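Please check this.
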Amino acid sequence: TWGLLWSLARLLYPPEKATGVFGIFALLYAINPLLLQEGMMLDIDCSVLTPILVLLLHEYIRMELRGTAWVRKYGWLSVLVAVSLWAKEFGAVYSAAALIVYVILRRQWRDLTGVVVMLVAGAALFWVTWWLYCRLTGMPLMFFIRFTILDKLMIGEGLLRTIAQQSGWGNAWFMVLFSLLNTIIWTSPFYFVLALLVIGWRLRVFWATKQVGPLDLLLLYVLATVGATQVYRPSGWFLKYEYPLHGVLVLLVAVYLYEKFQGCSWREWAVAGGVAVVAAAAQVGVTGDPVYWFFNMGLSGLRQHHVWVFYAVTAGVLLIALKVARADWRPMSVVAGALLVGTVGANLGLNWKQRAAYVTSITWNNYGEDGFREVVAYLQQVVPPGKMPICRGDFGFNLFKDDQPPRRRWIPWTVFTNARSVEEVVRNITVPEASHIVLDRYCMLRHLLPILLQYYELDQQFGLMKTGGYSFYILRRKNLPG
């Protein structure tokens, strides 16, 4: 993905400017906690879909700038659409929506026809290859529709699912704002404001010239991805679904910042870096880990630990310092400089805090969880021979990973989390081989606890939280020998 974005920068700008833009891009990307974690995920959205969608944008812009023949241009793009559909069924939606709006704004009606042909031909090519795959493997042809598109539209916390459950538009938009706030906490409010400034910049250019260019296509892709992911998002905590937009957005931010800082010396960049380190140290000392407070306490956690106050004061100090240091800068250059330094400082501070012993992974709903190793060690001591714990799969795997040959000697906790009746819960937790149950803070079992405690008793607690309570609770079967 980085290689494609570097190539895209070189397509749009002369070598010297492309190098400067990509240098800012590399800085912002490499220190962003959200992108660092998601970039290392072996996941369709992050590892497969993102480079394919960036390649599609890259190829469209490259062929548009070079005046590639219509048939060759849209024939090749049709192949990329088919590949993106193989990567993920919603993948082509992001780029398609951006391209359609783009060619309409440019009043290129022949290209609008080309985009429609590209989508139809790409979908047809995908369907033919999918049909062949199903014929060769025996996979049901409609499996693709039933277990991907329909499920994702109606399962999770996206707009359609929320409205379908008659929760109303108010609750639906709350989930959208919640996921947006989660992204802001991970990437910093400074970076979010920079993104808004990019949108404002491109709108001003469009208003003045009544024309759009490649940068506007990239921005339309970012906005289309944000909109599309809100429709079927499984959870407000899962930010990986927006990952395909972030590389492009960071590149746009880098272009904006380069335009504001042309002529800055390396000495000035070094001083800015030193200020950013000071800002990072201040965040670590004053607010701690804002993601921890938000994940475990919500908005009240951010308020109690003065997170917003810290960001506001930091922004004010940076603005004043830059205005004094560079009196010759225009106001928006001062604002952009303050936001850049603030972004670097906030990101470095969060990266430092995420070296903590508790879980700081973005991949699941357990940020801040502590005591995992202690739980595994304890269960290895207390589970009697011939018995099994009811627990999460990661506990089970680590409990028995040294077995030769490997065997699953635990009971997945879905036997009660997914049970459809009280009778089924009781039947599943009272099987003769069950000895312990491991509960965490996120299994949402308040309504089941009275049932569990009829047959089990609290044995141990692990992972004392800063917000109160524990990460894990171990229940022991009543009347268990020993």
